[in-house]
Amino acid sequence: MIWWMSVDNYLEHLTIIFDIYSNEPLNSPIQKFFYFGNEDSNITHFVQSEYARQFLKLNGLPDSKIFTVEDYLNQAFLSRAANVDLSLKENFVAYNPKKGFEITQQLINIAPDINWRPIKNMTPEQVQELLAKSKVYIDFGSHPGKDRIPREAAISGCVVIVGKRGAAANDIDINILDEFKFDDSKSSPQQVIDKIREVFKNFPAAHEKQAAYRARILDDKNRFTKEVAAAFGIKKMNRGGIALNQGISDASSLLVRKLQSQSLKANFIVDDVMSTEAAATIAEGLIVREQNRNYLRDGKILVEIITRDDAKFLYREGRIKNFALFEPTDAEIAELKNFYDAGDADVLVFNR
């Protein structure tokens, strides 16, 4: 299976390969790469964007070999973005200097009075703070796939303005009105500046015009789950699992059985130390290591051991639904809720 995250970067990589080998053809064998027209019927193609789907269709791949499998934004980012106060937005234009900067530089030269804010040398939190303040985000790059930052900008309340290139050219990957898309071969930089000033002047109306784009982004995770199920022929998706949060101890096996007695299953044990490769070597027999993961053996049952950070990620993703504790202290419950930002209903307490 090939998952096409970027069309343009694939083509760029091919160019690099042939540039190298055209100069020194006997230096080494040509790297293996996918090429169209071969008869390899075993390859299935996933596409992260409509742009990639159109590219594969153009190159002769049948619909039966192409599955749309997109992606989605980090849940922590979405949670913070939900609290953006649109009334505090300022007349800033955020931009990524690595994407289409030649055009951006023209815009800056024409309108030096506008407050241009580059996304550069920032932590994810600082990026979000900037996007939360900015009224506009521009991107005149190549859009080799369904890029992340335009989606983060939109969810942070920015009005997104893009060039009609790559994935931004169609109405699915970036489903905003045509008035916010500019073909740099036909449009002038001044037209872009006029649109930016228009957004500054009447931000609420412009923001409302991109409601459909934000709604699609918010549905990305739900759509991704359905797309994966369709691509792999999964008829029923598992619900979120249960994680034992007190590490591996004498109580671990007891808690696994307590869950079993209630027709529940322990999917994970959270233990930073026992999740390591070294722990598997020391506790051989008790801990089984397969495919770079550790599992606690309890009779015929294997329970995956994960770190706290992994558990936090899986909880945010919905792949952990509940945390189970055996006769916990009040401090243990409070610490769990604080670390995972977990609700009361997601904490299961068991006693003897």
Supply database-style keywords.
352 residues, alpha/beta, Rossmann fold, 3 domains, 7-stranded mixed β-sheet, 5-stranded parallel β-sheet, 14 helices, 15 strands, 19% strand, globular
List the helices and strands and how they pair.
Blueprint (H helix, E strand, L loop, with lengths): L1 E3 L2 H17 L21 E3 L2 H9 L7 E3 L6 H7 L8 E6 L5 H10 L4 E4 L5 H10 E6 L8 H8 L3 E5 L17 E2 L6 H13 L1 H7 L1 H8 L1 H13 L8 E4 L5 H12 L4 E5 L6 H6 L4 E4 L2 E6 L2 E6 L1 H10 L2 E7 L3 H11 L6 E4 L2
Parallel strand pairs: 1-2, 2-3, 4-5, 4-6, 6-7, 7-8, 9-10, 9-14, 10-13, 14-15
Antiparallel strand pairs: 11-12, 12-13
What does the model show?
- This protein has 352 residues and is α/β, with parallel strands linked by helices.
- It has three domains: 2-68, no CATH class; 75-221, Glycogen Phosphorylase B (Rossmann fold, 3-Layer(aba) Sandwich); 241-350, 3-Layer(aba) Sandwich (Rossmann fold).
- It is built from 14 helices and 15 strands.
- It has helices at residues 7-23, 50-58, 75-81, 101-110, 124-133, 148-155, 189-201, 203-209, 211-218, 220-232, 250-261, 277-282, 308-317, 330-340; strands at 2-4, 45-47, 66-68, 90-95, 115-118, 134-139, 159-163, 181-182, 241-244, 266-270, 287-290, 293-298, 301-306, 320-326, 347-350.
- The strands form three sheets. It has a seven-stranded mixed sheet, with helices on both faces. Strands 5-4-6-7-8 form a five-stranded parallel sheet.
- Helix 4 (101-110) crosses helix 7 and helix 7 (189-201) packs across helix 8 (203-209).
- It starts with a strand and ends with a strand.
